[in-house]
Amino acid sequence: ATLSITIPTVGYIVLEGKTIAWLEGVTGQNEIYMQIDETEGGNIVSPYWTKAGLQAYASSGQAFFPVSCQRTFSKNAGTYTFYLEAQPVTGNAAGATTNLYTTQLRAIFYPTTYGVVTSTNESSEGLDESIPSVK
Q1: How far is residue 11's CA from residue 107's CA, in Å, rounded to a whole number?
Q2: SS3 of 17, please?
Q3: pTM higher than 0.70
Q4: 42-63 pLDDT, tens per residue?
Q5: Do 35 and 69 contact (CB within 8 A), yes or no?
Q6: Residue 35 and which of 2, 61, 122, 124 are 20 to 30 A apart at CA?
């Protein structure tokens, strides 16, 4: 999955990816790595990867695993592209098939500056309370 986001100011981009790993074809090892990065086809980078699958199965039939991963980037204003990618684990048994489906990638932007915080006094049944407000 690929996602581009344009942010107006410096802040954090929080990315969340999820999919279903569909593994089949062997009774031996069949696993995948998945991560979010900025390089299409990039290498698996620790500690950002998630691993799913098993080293042994009862049959060579289908096995399904929900897989998710998250990553946060600190960025300046601009447009950025991110990739949710997966690859088979080295050492999977010969004939192992790895697939992904219902893949989703979501980005949320949080600016690092929110404005000035001031306090106002407000009366509630004769009690004064300090209420912060953001301008």
Answers
A1: 13
A2: strand
A3: yes
A4: 889 989 999 999 999 999 999 9
A5: yes
A6: 61
